[in-house]
TrEMBL record:
GO terms for cellular component: cytosol. GO terms for biological process: D-alanine biosynthetic process. Keywords: Isomerase, Pyridoxal phosphate. This is Alanine racemase. Substrate binds at R136, M324. Pfam families: Ala_racemase_C (PF00842), Ala_racemase_N (PF01168). Its cofactor is pyridoxal 5'-phosphate. SUPFAM superfamilies: Alanine racemase C-terminal domain-like, PLP-binding barrel. Residues 255-383 form the Alanine racemase C-terminal domain. The modification N6-(pyridoxal phosphate)lysine is found at K36. It comes from Marinigracilibium pacificum. InterPro entries: Ala_racemase (IPR000821), Ala_racemase/Decarboxylase_C (IPR009006), Ala_racemase_C (IPR011079), Ala_racemase_N (IPR001608), Ala_racemase_pyridoxalP-BS (IPR020622), PLP-binding_barrel (IPR029066).
Length: 383
């Protein structure tokens, strides 16, 4: 069954990015591959297969729903799976039974985990999250001694695997003071755990941005998301890296390409409008190609009259309003353009490229947002 577009995932690009990440962390630091948001739009099932083949042994997701999808790929021994956020109440027992690790950031989850562990006779593997300034999830510093005491009291049921936190915008220098204060607070809690002799196996705080900008906070594990997919957390960090390393090109390679095809070709006369409404008026005779993707497929409506795609090695413009299921592009002057010609929405064709960053700048979306909005039903292929 054919789809109107498809996504290619480059496994060699991933191996390159993984090698780069390893140069930025301590030798013994574990890389946890963050595959939340459908592996940042790359497809959990396809991406996890690539990561496993590249030697990755640790995966992080946001929800128990995502955990179940990863679990189906990595069934068997030798892999660690960690849930950083939402766990449906009916999934907590499943997670404990299958030795899936999870963040604990509220007393209700801690108590429920203990109850289930006692009932099924299997320890819950807990990562205690500390609220250090993100003000999202985590135990407040004032609560932490009580939490530690609970962990000790029920150590037969609760395995204190890790103490962790999450930084509030490590990708931006404007957040420097805030993140530094988070570092200090986490280190205080870490010291408190050691004084109380309630020491976990590991500590972790760093996402992609933090492992680059705050290397002293890498500890035992880093949760790597956007970097592994070939994108910098922000332009600011990319420029900082180039300056510090005195290099001119990014060492990261993009994994993702998104392609479709021409569905129809129309001739438009001078003075005719193209598409819905009156946003585009033909100032001369034009040839318009119709591509069967639209905002229902993740091609934002804000790209109307501004988006760019590649056809026959040329960069062409979206004209008129992006529809739910199709868009119009100007192919005037392109010789031999025909139905079924390849259309590159993201990626390379010949010497030209449409990058995710240029795509997102035109649509006013973050890289993260654009990628994770790519529908799950678009087929993903590993190459």
């Amino acid at each position: 069954m054919s789809h109107t577009s498809y996504i290619e995932i480059n496994s060699e690009a991933y191996k390159n990015n993984l090698d780069f990440i390893k140069t930025q962390i301590n030798r013994d630091t574990i890389i946890s591959s963050v595959v939340k948001g459908n592996a940042y739009g790359h497809g959990i099932e396809e991406f996890v297969k690539i990561a496993v083949e590249s030697g990755v042994k640790h995966f992080s997701v946001y929800s128990s729903y995502e955990a179940r999808r990863v679990f189906e790929v990595i069934k068997g021994k030798g892999f660690t799976l960690m849930i950083m956020g939402d766990i449906h109440s009916e999934d907590l027992e499943w997670a404990i039974q299958n030795e899936i690790e999870f963040f604990v950031f509220e007393k209700q989850r801690l108590k429920k985990a203990r109850e289930i562990s006692e009932r099924i006779g299997k320890k819950a593997i807990c990562h205690i999250e500390v609220e250090t300034g993100m003000n999202r999830t985590g135990f407040d510093e004032s609560e932490i001694e009580e939490v530690f005491s609970f962990m000790v009291q029920y150590k037969e049921n609760l395995y204190f695997k890790a103490l962790c936190t999450h930084f509030a915008g490590a990708e931006s220098i404007t957040n420097y003071v805030r993140v530094e204060n988070q570092c200090k607070k986490f280190l205080r809690v870490k010291e408190q755990s050691e004084k109380l002799e309630v020491k976990p196996d590991i500590y972790h705080t760093c996402c992609s941005a933090a492992l680059i900008r705050y290397p002293h906070m890498q500890f035992d594990l880093v949760r790597v998301g956007i970097l592994q997919y070939g994108f910098w957390p922000s332009r600011e960090i990319f420029i900082e890296y180039l300056k510090n390393k005195k290099v001119k090109e990014s060492p990261l390679w993009r994994l993702i390409s998104w392609k479709s095809r021409i569905m129809s070709i129309q001739n438009v006369h001078t003075g005719d409008y193209v598409g819905y409404g009156t946003t585009f008026l033909a100032g001369h005779d034009m040839k318009i190609a119709i591509v069967p993707i639209g905002y229902a497929n993740g091609f934002s409506r804000t790209l109307s009259n501004t988006g760019r795609v590649l056809i026959r090695g040329e960069r062409v413009t979206v004209v008129g309003i992006v529809n739910m299921n199709c868009l119009q592009i100007d192919v005037t002057g392109i010789e031999d353009v025909s139905i079924d010609d390849e259309v590159v929405i993201i990626g390379n064709q010949g010497d030209l490229e449409v990058t995710v960053s240029s795509f997102s700048e035109l649509s006013d979306q973050l890289n993260y947002e654009l990628l994770t909005r790519l529908p799950q039903d678009i087929p993903r292929y590993i190459k």
